[in-house]
Write a structure and sequence with these properties.
Helix content: 10-25%
Protein name: Exodeoxyribonuclease-3
Family: Belongs to the DNA repair enzymes AP/ExoA family.
Number of helices: 6
Shape: globular
Keywords: Hydrolase, Magnesium, Metal-binding
Radius of gyration: 17 Å
Domain Endonuclease/exonuclease/phosphatase: 5-248
Structural class: alpha+beta
Pfam families: Exo_endo_phos (PF03372)
CATH superfamily: Endonuclease/exonuclease/phosphatase
Strand order of the largest sheet: 3-4-2-1-12-11
Largest sheet: 6 strands, mixed
């Protein structure tokens, strides 16, 4: 049995108490983090090791950043940065092997305002991901993270509210659908085919969060070699209500 989780932490140092509490309470075997918002040298590796996790990370000051954590072991880095554009300096992809599994941690561009250059970059990045993901289909692979894509209407509390947002644009949704057509399984949707499951909510000016803004855009995609091992999946929604939380909640899967 192995558990894998993904969490857009929205600032690993600013949200460190939330991250450490969550890691200590859940004890997932493998954890992918996005939006670290810190340089490599300021990544809180000592605190993470104290709660029992080895880690690799790909930081960027103030923006982006991804990391892979493994409980009681050290992830073996395979790649940092998505291939296909040597001029892309954003820290959005890191890949490791952990106990025979290949783990890709993804922070896909948001793309707003759209249309425009940021949306063009998002779509180009997505196409690079699709091309690279094709080479990983035959391995026991999990590609997880913040895809910044709301795949279908069931993945939003109020879909019409997001029609002008890049996360819900038809091109974004089609790129995600192309990943699934290639052979990847959307693990959370596989386990919960008809349920409104959400991983993101807007911050509320009144405190707490706006439950009507719920979206599912943090995903765990598993390769065909792992699809028959998928046992359960869910979202740790309660974390969104903790003190000084991220605007995302962690999503997770369990493989037998």
């Amino acid at each position: 049995m192995v558990t894998i989780a993904t969490f857009n932490v929205n600032g690993v140092n600013g949200r460190l108490p939330v991250l450490l509490k969550w890691l200590d309470e859940t004890r997932y075997d493998i954890v992918c983090l996005q939006e670290l918002k810190t340089s490599d040298e300021r990544f809180p590796i000592d605190a993470i090791r104290e709660v029992g996790y080895g880690a690799i990370w790909h930081g960027q000051k103030s923006y982006n950043g991804v990391a892979i954590l493994a409980r009681n072991t050290q992830p073996q880095e395979r790649r940092r940065g998505l291939p296909g554009d040597p001029d892309d300096t954003h820290s959005r992809y890191i890949e490791a092997e952990v106990d025979g599994l290949v783990i890709g941690c993804i922070y896909l561009p948001n793309g707003n305002p759209a249309p425009g250059p940021k949306f063009d970059y998002k779509l180009a990045w997505f196409q690079r991901l699709i091309g690279y993901a094709r080479t990983m289909l035959k391995e026991e692979t999990v590609l997880c993270g913040d895809y910044n894509v709301v795949p279908t209407p069931i993945d939003a509390v109020a879909p019409a509210r997001w029609l002008g947002d890049a996360v819900y644009f038809p091109q974004s949704r089609q790129a995600y659908a192309d990943m699934l057509k290639m052979g990847w399984t959307d693990a959370v949707r596989q386990i919960h085919p008809d349920k409104g499951v959400y991983t993101y909510w807007n911050f509320s000016y009144r405190g707490g969060y706006d439950r009507s803004s719920g979206l599912r855009m943090d995903h765990l995609l598993v390769s065909p070699a792992l699809s028959n091992r998928l046992q359960s999946a869910g979202v740790d929604v309660s974390v969104r209500g903790w003190e000084k939380p991220s605007d995302h909640a962690p999503a997770w899967i369990e493989l037998i």
